UniProtKB/TrEMBL annotation, chain A:
Reported function: Subunit of the oligosaccharyl transferase (OST) complex that catalyzes the initial transfer of a defined glycan (Glc(3)Man(9)GlcNAc(2) in eukaryotes) from the lipid carrier dolichol-pyrophosphate to an asparagine residue within an Asn-X-Ser/Thr consensus motif in nascent polypeptide chains, the first step in protein N-glycosylation. N-glycosylation occurs cotranslationally and the complex associates with the Sec61 complex at the channel-forming translocon complex that mediates protein translocation across the endoplasmic reticulum (ER). All subunits are required for a maximal enzyme activity.
GO process terms (BP): protein N-linked glycosylation
KW Membrane (keyword) present: yes
Domain of life: Eukaryota
Subcellular location: Endoplasmic reticulum membrane
Protein name (record): Dolichyl-diphosphooligosaccharide--protein glycosyltransferase subunit OST2
Membrane-protein topology: Multi-pass membrane protein
Species of the source: Jaapia argillacea MUCL 33604
Automatic annotation (TrEMBL), chain B:
Protein name according to UniProt: Dolichyl-diphosphooligosaccharide--protein glycosyltransferase subunit STT3
GO cellular component: oligosaccharyltransferase complex
Compositional bias (Basic residues): 820-836
The protein's Enzyme Commission number: 2.4.99.18
Length: 127, 836
């Protein structure tokens, strides 16, 4: 479960070493072109990522003793992250061609349903 | 544009649509009925009982669930299995099957239909086979067209490769697993196609159900990532793939960990690492594509590409290190033996000893799949080309494209993997069968599409628009219903009738085209639609005449009919026999039932104490627990190899060694299966070498396989049998008093086809010619007594003697009881016994 998160973070870190200006232009482009709704979603994504990283660091540094609790907590972060990222992709106006049959409202309903199912399993697994 | 035969023109599009859907519903209902009916041979010919070995445990567990409720079942500790150890059942089974039948049982009772739980269990598999047919229909519909879907549903409804594991009475995990497998795949395809999180969640829920139902869930766990990986390599990464895969993996993994038997395996074992790896890779790719959408510099893209590549390498390397360091468990033996096919035989004889784990021979492919196996590769090749997709543009134009789509890649990957696995292991024919049905249905429906389509090319007419994705012109040239054609139409309809699917699909296509074109000349749209798929040649040879069409169609129809005959024949003759009762034919054709198993099990149930432990080879553990209701030492859930080896050692050792083992394990009865009298080949003497091998794996010093062969290396039970063989407990128990049946004549073992020495030379010879087996008249026991032998001598039950009251060793005690002559012949052993 650690793979996706840490490596995504590492991608953004590895680029400044290559060209600082590219990151600046990336940030510029991002703030300019992204709609505010997507920015909101991105803020949530960052929060989820930080929460997941904290849990992982705790697991590594202190203990993984109730392993099911760790997996449930970390899994809920990762799962919620990817579900939110999916929502972001589906509602992004640029992706309209890809998701012909998924309207933004439908995407949100899917997101809500997926999150409910996910958290049902998370709470069941917390033990 | 001319037509080979004319079609009626004055039918409204809505009528066509309605008729098509009605026909589809009727066809699916008939397919379900056929699927259920063809699985009932065993119930009708014999009775409604559970077959085989494993289903007996499932049945027993389901009874606990039905009578004690779900929580009792979940926490069920079974003290009677694996006798001294017991078994935590809740944590060592896949509870999906029992839960399903428990739900059905309770639902039926809530409806005031008080059905016995046994009948629910017996008829569960036929019921679910109808659902399998339906989900195969759905999946194939996504691949090609509803008509192909109906063909696939019809195929999988009656194909023997699937019936073999799902006849009525075969209450095994596979009964529901194949339905769940197909529906999970359908939901996955749907999620991928639409990019819908909802279908991703559905796929995850069904995946969770699959994990709860069958150990073969690892197939899904690796198929979906493999599909995603192949798509990525083909450059077909899309946001839809991300949405589908991520929602499936995130929810599905958590769902799978709820099953106690699976537990933390999804993060700890190598079988599940492919799914995790692809999950990570998809995160990287999506992040990279997000960045790429914001920055256009090619320089930056290269950096991204390199970093993605490097991070992937780091991920893969990390997993390798984790596996190597032991934090991630390596492949388990059962899975590993699929790759290294010699592994099981060398290191884990208990896996190799199961007959289902042998490689598949060619004839069984034909027997299980008939002509589908020939159409299977053709279907795969057609899928490489892709099937036509008709899309209606907003402008009202109809576009048809023929190219490989994401879901086709899935079926191709599935076909390749499943073919390999089915070649390695007989049992995995089961996972191959659905994909064979899908591919063959694509092949057959493609054939029928071409040869049923009435359009004939005009000479040199439409040769120009051979390119794909040409818009079908609407209303150009009409097909007039000529008055002279009714007979041709009738013939064509007659040919088309064997499969309802083709007709309905044709009509549906026509309807879609007609509705889109807003004109009544739907047939024309269909014509031009099909002609774009098959670019017409300039000349007019080939298939376009009615005669050639009829030849091909009749041939295909005949093949389909033979398929039905073959399936029915194989199902009735090969796969519909409950192994609990053996049937044979009397000379006058009537049926003779051999019911020794139940006779013996019920003897045990009625005539022994509640807590009397029965020792048998592990094959019969579940049946003894289910039918005789007695504790067993080992059973079919072979989780403790050493315990099984203990039983193997007791069976293959002389009495002096076996008796302490029996006593230490509180064994009261020993049950063996002996087929020498009526020629039942699956008996314990034929399984004996596996007992020896498994025991040898644990005690290589005491049990050696070569000792059980003659010096020439033959496995014999007759006068030439080796010393270890004829002194083993199994040999003695099998042939004890066997000669009495022959009244002094030749004693024949009808399974081995060997003649046993009935009245051989007596005692002295035993010492002089050690290669001579003792005559059967002299087979006596020190430690066990014959307690029961069934009518045809198939099941023999021996009671273990208690220790001698005078403290003698049991052999000398029994020698004393039998008479002086015996005793005097073995003075040494007696003296030793007294000293001891």
């Amino acid at each position: 479960m650690a793979g996706p998160k840490t490596s995504t973070a590492a991608t953004s870190k590895s680029s400044p070493a290559a060209s600082p200006s590219a990151v600046q232009s990336l940030w510029q482009a991002y703030t300019d072109t992204t709609p505010s709704r997507l920015k909101l979603i991105d803020a949530f994504l960052v929060f989820l990522m930080l929460s997941g990283v904290m849990q992982f660091v705790y697991c590594i540094l202190v203990t993984n003793f109730p392993f099911n609790a760790f997996l449930a907590g970390f899994g809920s972060c990762v799962g919620q992250f990817v579900l939110t990222a999916s929502l972001r992709m589906q509602v992004n106006p640029e992706n309209k061609v890809e998701f012909k049959e998924v309207s933004p409202e439908r995407a949100f309903a899917d997101f809500a349903l997926g999150s409910i199912v996910l958290h049902f399993f998370v709470f069941n697994f917390l033990g | 544009m001319t037509a080979a035969y004319s079609l009626p023109q004055d039918i409204s599009p809505s009528f066509i649509t309605n008729t098509a859907s009605l026909l589809r519903i009727v066809a699916l209902a008939l397919i379900s009925a056929a699927a259920i009916a063809s699985r009932l041979f065993a119930v009708i010919n014999f009775e409604s009982i559970i077959h085989e070995f494993d289903p007996w445990f499932n049945y027993r567990a389901t009874r606990v669930l039905a009578s004690n409720g779900f929580y009792e079942f979940w926490n069920w500790f079974d003290p009677t299995a694996w006798y001294p150890l017991g078994r935590v059942v809740g944590g060592t089974i896949y509870p999906g099957l029992m839960a399903t039948s428990g739900i059905i049982y309770n639902a039926l009772h809530a409806l005031n239909l008080p059905v016995d739980i046994r009948n629910v269990c017996v008829l569960l598999a036929p019921g679910f086979s109808a659902l399998t047919a339906f989900s195969t229909y759905l999946l194939t519909k996504e691949m090609k067209s509803p008509s192909a879907g109906l063909l696939a549903a019809a195929f999988i409804g009656i194909v023997p490769g699937y019936i073999s594991r799902s006849v009525a009475g075969s209450y095994d995990n596979e009964a529901i697993a194949i339905f769940i497998l197909m529906f999970t795949f359908y939901a996955w395809i749907k999620a991928l196609k639409l990019g819908s999180g909802f279908w991703g969640a559905v796929a995850a829920l069904f995946y969770g159900y699959m994990v709860a139902a069958w150990g073969g869930y690892a197939f899904i766990t690796n198929m979906i990532p493999l599909h995603a990986f192949v798509l990525i390599l083909m450059g077909r990464y899309s946001s839809r793939l991300y949405v589908a895969y991520s929602s499936w993996y995130a929810i599905g993994t958590l769902a799978s960990m709820q099953v106690p038997f699976v537990g933390f395996q999804p993060v700890r074992t190598s079988e599940h690492m492919a799914a995790l790896g692809i999950f990570g890779l998809l995160q990287l790719l999506s992040f990279a594509s997000l960045i790429r959408s914001h920055v256009s510099s090619s320089h930056f893209q290269t950096i991204l590409f390199v970093s993605v590549l490097a991070l992937t390498a780091v991920g893969v390397g990390g997993m390798g290190v984790l596996t190597w360091k032991g934090w991630i468990a390596p492949w388990t033996g059962r899975f590993y033996s699929l790759w290294d096919t010699g592994y099981a035989k060398k290191y884990i004889p208990i896996i190799a000893s199961v007959s289902e784990h042998q490689p598949t021979a060619w004839p069984s492919f034909f027997m299980d799949l008939h002509f589908l196996i020939f159409l299977f590769p053709a279907g795969v090749i057609l899928l490489f080309r892709g099937t036509p997709t008709t899309t209606v543009l907003p402008s009202g134009q109809i576009t048809t494209e023929t190219k490989i789509r994401d879901e086709h890649v899935f079926v191709i990957v599935y076909a390749v993997m499943a073919s390999y696995f089915a070649g390695v292991m007989v049992r995995l024919m089961l996972t191959l069968t659905p994909v064979v049905c899908v591919c063959a249905a694509v092949g057959v429906s493609e054939l029928l599409d071409v040869y049923l389509d009435p359009s004939e090319p005009e000479v040199g007419g439409e040769g120009k628009d051979g390119e794909e994705s040409d818009a079908a012109s609407t209303g150009s040239g009409g097909v007039t219903a000529t008055s002279g054609a009714p007979s041709a139409t009738a013939t064509a309809t007659g040919v088309a009738s064997p499969s309802l699917g083709k007709k309905s699909a044709k009509k549906e296509k026509a309807a879609a085209a007609a509705a889109a074109a807003n004109s009544s000349t739907g047939i024309v749209a269909l014509d031009s639609l099909v002609s774009t798929l098959h670019p017409p040649t300039r000349t007019k040879p080939g298939i376009w005449g009615l005669d050639t069409r009829l030849t091909i169609l009749l041939n295909t129809t005949a093949l389909l009919l033979f398929f039905v005959l073959h399936c029915t024949y194989v199902t009735s003759s090969a796969y519909s026999s409950p192994s609990v009762v053996l049937a044979s034919q009397n000379p006058d054709g009537s049926q003779h039932i051999i019911d020794d198993f139940r006779e013996a099990y019920y003897w045990l149930r009625m005539n022994t104490g509640e807590g009397d432990v029965v020792m048998s080879w592990w094959d019969y553990g579940y049946q003894i627990a289910g039918m005789a209701d007695r504790p067993t030492l080992v059973d079919n859930n072979t989780w403790n190899n050493t315990h099984i080896a203990t039983v193997g050692k007791a069976m293959s050792s002389p009495e002096e060694i076996a008796y302490p083992i029996l006593r230490k394990h509180d064994v009261s009865y020993v049950l063996i299966i002996f087929g020498g009298l009526i020629g039942y080949s699956g008996d314990d003497i034929n399984k004996f070498l596996w007992m020896v091998r498994i025991a040898q794996g644990v005690w290589p010093d005491e049990i050696q396989e070569p000792n059980y062969f003659t010096p020439q290396g033959e496995y014999k039970v007759d006068a030439g049998a080796s010393k270890a063989m004829r002194e083993s407990l199994m040999y003695k128990m099998s042939y004890y008093r066997f000669h009495e049946l022959f009244g002094g004549g030749q004693v024949m073992d009808r399974v081995r086809g060997q003649q046993l020495p009935s009245v051989g030379p007596t005692l002295d010879v035993l010492g002089t010619f050690p290669s001579f087996s003792p005559p059967l008249t002299l087979l006596t026991f020190g430690c066990v007594d014959e307690a029961f032998t069934s009518e045809n001598w198939i099941v023999r039950i021996y009671e273990v003697k208690k220790e001698d009251l005078l403290g003698r060793d049991l052999k000398s005690a029994s020698g004393f009881a039998e008479g002086k002559k015996r005793k005097r012949s073995k003075p040494v052993s007696r003296r030793r016994a007294v000293v001891a």
